Amino acid sequence: MEINSKKRISINIISTILQVIVVGIVYLFLYRFLLNSLGIEKLGVWSIILATSSIANLGNFGITSGLVKFIADYNAKEKLKDIPSLIFTALISITVLFLLIIVIIYFFGKVILSYVVEPKYFSLALEILPYSLLCLFLNAVGGIFISTLEGFQKNYIKNFLFSFSAILLLFSSYYLLPIYQLKGVAIAQVLQSLIILLGSLWFVIKAVPFTIFNKKNWDNKIFKELISYGTKFQVISIFQILYEPITKGLISKFGGLALLGYYEMAARLVNQVRALIVNANQVMVPVVAHTNSTNKEKLRELYNKSMSLIFFINVLLISFLLIFTPIISVLWIGFLEPTFIFSMIILSATMFVNILIGPAYFSCVGEGKLNLILKSQILIGVLNLILGLVLGYFFSGKGVIVSWAISVSISSFYLFYSYQKQNNIPLTNLITKYNVILFSIATTMVLLSLFFFKDIECFFKNSWLVAALYMFVTIIIFIPFLFKNNDIIKLKETFFKKENNGIN
Fold first, then answer.
1. Distance (Å, whole) CA 59 – CA 338
2. What does the DSSP 8-state code read for residue 100?
3. CB-based contacts of 295-300 (< 8 A; 24+ apart in sequence)
4. Quick check: 420 and 426 in contact, CB under 8 A?
5. Residue-level pLDDT at 409
6. Radius of gyration, alpha carbons of the chain
7. pLDDT tens digits for 210-251?
8. Cβ atoms within 10 A of the Cβ of 279, count?
9. How many CB atoms are closer than 10 A to CB 206?
10. Whether 303 contacts 292, CB under 8 Å
């Protein structure tokens, strides 16, 4: 079947990687522009607003995540005539729920922001809050159509829309910021969200050969199924949504807006690198759901292959990020900024651990087994709040960052350990001679980079040639691993050779 073809999966993965790269480059230029034009404290204000308004995602109730699974299931079982009802029911549910929560947040926003925003920036924060809430609403509605595309394994369309809208955001910000200041960036984000919504809607209408927008498509049974599946997802979402605003709020309170601004820049960069792996891995959700419905014996094999490949890519990308962190600081900020470098090191090391649980996480989603995810998210939410308050009080904003790292690491290990134990997968399945050598070399290079860079800062600050040479030497060291990795070889063969029919 086309929906489960190796080539379709490969195209989705490659397009996802390209999308993340494009978006990452866009945000590198955008944040540099914002830093120079607005200053680090106003960048911190923008970070707080994004975190505060993201609470509106509580209105999701796991519906968009459930939609991916259900569409994949319906498609696998050839229940195509039920898909319009599924989409319409999800759309109406999301619209109503989000409108209610956004209205509540808007009226209580003043109270929330008063605790975490410095008085001199309070009025600015209130001014841009409505724009951020509007973005979230547009993203929520657009998320229904994006999830539909993912359910049909048309991730490449989503990736195109995200890439195009990111470029639009960059150019709109360059044009609007000189006129409207920070509000101009907020308006640019509204335009970005609108493009994603309209674009995904257009592609869904073309993909689904039935009328979607018909009140007769409302189905109480489907609504109950979505809510039932999404109940646990909603609890998961609550903890996922809340720990970001809690973390940023505590950083702002104990460390100030400047610290938050540098943390935001580091988090944006690390999350883009993380997205290279995680978003590519997310492509497997409908594949897992499809395979779970048709050939459950393939699931364990699928998990092991995903884990092996992700470990390899994870080591390379995270080590590269850490090795080049000092260079990034000099070229992006203009100097070696200790707070930025500290945030990058803590965030990158933590994300290395978190990325490793991707196959377990998305396998649970695809199989509809959410208990492990629920427990891990409750764990991270509770730990993050308690440790954040304690370490923030004693060690200021940096203590909050460390508390977040501890919470995420513990939660990630719990999910990884529990999933492998439940499925009788050896905990040592990644400890091979090849992986140990790769990890050791990467760790050594990271430590050398961080240790020696302070002595050669001036060279990188004044010479792109030296920085390029440094990057070239680093890449050369890892090239042998690229040619010897079996998973990379198989992926290349899969993409370029003619695909076979049947389930792969």
1. 38
2. H
3. 295/503, 298/503, 299/363, 299/367, 300/423, 300/425
4. yes
5. 93
6. 23
7. 666 766 778 777 777 777 766 666 677 667 666 777 888 899
8. 23
9. 9
10. no
Query: What pLDDT is recorded for position 401?
Result: 93
**What sign does the CA torsion over 459, 463, 467, 470 have?**
negative
Residue with tokens 């594949």: 287
pLDDT at residue 495, as a whole number: 47
Q: Output the six-digit token pair for 18.
A: 């390209």
What pLDDT does 282 receive?
64
Stated as kind and residue range, the H or E segment containing 317 is: helix 298-323
Cα gap 146→127, rounded to integer Å: 30
Chain centroid, CA 179 distance in Å: 31
Question: Using N-to-C axis directions, what is the helix angle for 122-151 and 83-116, rounded to 10°?
Answer: 160
DSSP states along 363-409? HHHHHT--HHHHHHHHHHHHHHHHHHHHHHHHHHHHHHHHHHHHHHH
Structure token digits, residue 374: 């629920």
Q: Which two tokens stand for residue 74?
A: 């319906």
Which residue, chain included where needed, has tokens 């595309």? Answer: 149
pLDDT per 10-residue tile (average), the chain, 504 residues: 57 78 84 85 79 60 73 71 82 86 81 78 86 88 88 85 92 92 89 92 79 72 73 67 80 88 88 77 62 62 77 85 84 83 92 87 74 84 91 92 93 88 75 79 81 60 60 70 63 50 38
Among 52, 27, 35, 44, which residue's Cα sits nearest to residue 261? 44
Q: How far apart are the C-alpha atoms of 141 and 153, rounded to whole Å?
A: 19
What is the spatial distance between Cα 437 and Cα 312, in angstroms, rounded to a whole number?
11
Secondary structure tally for the chain: helices H, strands E: 19, 0
